[in-house]
């Protein structure tokens, strides 16, 4: 392969141009290079940030556990409340029926009247007639006309 003169010139001038470029622009230390103290400071800041992120993650995990516990506890409370309401709703009609059917003591005056009516109803006819005559004489005033039977 034969090289032409322009190709040879190109290959000779290329390294020369690159070295001139490096001389003016420079490949040496730039403003972005950090000293050991700056690296150490950056590493400490990153470590502090990592610790903060870890602490926040732990706090987030604790909050999640607390919410899970609340959710379980509230679910248990809701279930207990629902069961007790259902039990009350089932027992309440039975309690009302029991109260309505519970025997009540009757007043004494009503009991005496009932006994007197029963005695009259089941007493022999002569005893009833005599009793009516006795009660009629005691209730009649003295100036009333005698009973003619």
Polypeptide structure, described:
The protein is mainly alpha-helical. The protein contains four helices and no strands. It has helices at 5-25, 36-101, 108-122, 125-139.
Separation of the first and last Cα atoms: 173 Å
Question: Low-confidence parts, pLDDT < 50 over ≥5 residues?
Answer: none
Q: Give the percentage of residues in beta strands.
A: under 5%
Oligomeric state:
single chain
Overall pLDDT confidence: 79
Q: What is the molecular shape?
A: rod-shaped
Structural class: mainly alpha
Radius of gyration: 59 Å
Number of helices: 4
Number of strands: 0
Main pleated-sheet profile: none
Order of helices and strands: HHHH
Helix proportion of residues, in percent? over 70%
Helices and strands, with pairings:
Blueprint: H1 5-25, H2 36-101, H3 108-122, H4 125-139
């Amino acid at each position: 392969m034969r090289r032409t003169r322009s190709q040879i010139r190109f290959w000779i001038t290329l390294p020369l141009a690159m070295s001139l470029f490096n001389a003016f622009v420079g490949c040496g230390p730039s403003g972005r290079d950090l000293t050991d103290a700056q690296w150490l400071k950056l590493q400490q800041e990153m470590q502090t940030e990592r610790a903060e992120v870890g602490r926040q993650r732990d706090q987030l995990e604790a909050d999640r556990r607390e919410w899970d516990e609340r959710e379980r506890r509230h679910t248990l409370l809701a279930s207990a409340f629902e069961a007790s309401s259902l039990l009350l709703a089932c027992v309440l009609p039975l309690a009302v029926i029991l109260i309505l059917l519970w025997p009540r003591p009757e007043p004494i005056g009503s009991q005496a009247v009932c006994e007197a009516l029963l005695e009259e109803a089941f007493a022999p006819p002569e005893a009833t007639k005599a009793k009516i005559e006795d009660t009629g004489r005691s209730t009649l005033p003295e100036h009333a006309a005698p009973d003619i039977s």
